[in-house]
Amino acid sequence: MTFTPQPKKRSDVRLSSPVTVLSGVGPKKAEALGKLGVFTLEDLIFLMPRRYEDRRFPKPLSELTPGNIECAVADVAEISAFNGRTEAVLSDSSGIARAVWFTDKIADFVHKGMRLALYGPISDYYVEPQFSHPAFEILYKNKTPTLIGKIFPIYPGTAELPQKAIKKFVDTVLETYADSLLNDFLPSRILTHYKMMSLKEAVMTVHNPADEKQFIRARNRLSFDELFLLQTGIMLRRRAFMGKYRASILRAGRIFREFSDSLTFKMTDAQRIAIYEILEDVEKPYPMNRLLQGDVGSGKTLVAIFAMLAACDSGFQSAFMAPTEILAQQHYVSLRRFLAPLGVRTALLTGSLRASERREILAGLYDGNISIAVGTHALFSGGVTFNNLALAVIDEQHRFGVLQRGELTSKAKAPHVLAMTATPIPRTLVMSIYGDLEVSTLNEMPKGRKSIKTSAVMPQEFKKVYGMIREEVSKGHQVYWVCPLIGEGERELANVIASYEMISSAMPEMRAAVIHGQLPIDEKSRVMSEFSAGNIDILVATTVIEVGVDVPNATMIVIQDAGQFGLSQLHQLRGRVGRGDSQSYCVLLENEGITDSGRERISAMVEISDGFELSERDLMQRGPGEICGTHQHGVTDFRVAELVRDEKILELARDEAKSLLDDDPNLSNEPELKQEILRRLGKVLELASVS
Length: 691
Ligand code: ADP
Ligand code: MG
Hints:
Structural class: alpha/beta
Strand order of the largest sheet: 11-12-10-13-14-9-15
Helix content: 25-40%
Bound molecules: adenosine-5'-diphosphate, magnesium ion
Shape: globular
Oligomer: single chain
Strand content: 15-25%
């Protein structure tokens, strides 16, 4: 353990002081608190009860209801101990009840005639209700009970730290320091307008609520604080950024129109609207910050191409970043096919280029010869210099950490950013993480798409899948076979080969091939283009094909041991099919020993085809940080706020933050607020995207 110097005077104590400044908290206790994530006074003050026990209303014994947790005040009519148990008969004016404790020690100090306050679960006992191992307190001389009569907070506890101890620490910190440490930082206008509790009152209330109504008011106040500070912080940063940097102005021109005329299909209305929204953004001298979300197969790439062509038309470069080499490769191939006839120069930059190829591409990016660079995050590694990068498209942005988005913006002063995702982020989350990020949504699939038929197959019916595959292939279609999820490296390889051999020997007439992360990129792209060309019937793959891969003639995807995959991953994988006019199928193979949650995910997939709905489920199951890759930055690690529950508060917080900054862009009139934003979020905001 590190030694933390203790502040000498009480006035030196801050929210950030270690819990050891409290009397009664030594190194041992501090360590135990640390296991709950409590290190500082602030952590302790804002340690939220997990739940509350309502012990306000003692009931007459005759009204105790089996199955409930109840409290009562009663006299001991009989008490006896035997076989490690204590049993008592209790009485009050309404009738009798029983109590049992699973220890024989109670009768040593609880005697007939005493009055008790009790709290605990009620079970059936012949005729009378029975308290089962209740907490109790002896009420000598009509002493007022402390065990009952109010609402009790229940904190997250550990074996070393019983509730009583935590409660005591919380009480101590509030008694000693609440007055000096909990100062309101919200603008007074907001406090009065919404009749909010003061910060101190809200904190005291969540630890000791008088009733539910008061508790909700307190929680709302604290939740508003968190959301408002984050919104204000993010907007402050973004506005500072926009004010500092001028973005290049991009307008659609000749190439844009030629491309539009060359399309052989009709764009969806949603695509048109999204393109229009983007063009409006990039015509302004501020960097665009737009998220394009649309379910897998909704045609996001096309929208991005139009945006990049507007950059081209205006004489600027664009970068198109994909999360995997396979995807980058594929985008490159289709971009080149579309754009080469229009005279637009594109290049592919990934980590596995030969040195000479890399040099040539770097030179082209540097002198501006190359207009569109497609690549993995290698695009934004050191050594890559663009001539005049004006637009960065980030495909499948949820796959990139927040940090990488920051790196990207270091390649150009203020590029317009278009991030694309098929993992629709619930609106609440988008708002809380990105503040005033703009969102376009492709809520419509290209014409003629049929919804994918999804089915689950038990391990014992495994063989019937071969029949399904044969049928699809006999129609001239192709199939993906996704191998179980087992991590990286050697084991992955062994696994894919095993599946490949199983399939080849079961269906020797099929043309099967293997693709996985260990293959050299040249080999990967050779396999992918063979598959695209229709020369392979079954592609046995790891999750390298998870995102974005687009082969419309593939109409079936089989996912082995599907229970092991996450929900959004399954949905992404399913999105590899259903990209053409034919009916497509997704077959989810259950594994031996599948978990309950695995089975739940499979049935969610069978039941739900809409990506938004699935991602709401995912949010509930996994929590927001996981989904957005922001976990490590703590952007969504709230103490009180819960995005789904507090959506209204979030909207309010955003509106208030906006109007505050409109009036007072630097918060010069709100020094306490500014201070609090820096104190709580300084680190987080530094790391968060330039949004
Ligand atoms: P995603 O949104 O999943 O990235 P893609 O951009 O890969 O989807 O598009 C899926 C497929 O649909 C591609 O083959 C693309 O060329 C095609 N596509 C895109 N827009 C349309 C449209 N309006 N009509 C028909 N096909 C389209
Ligand atoms: Mg895509």
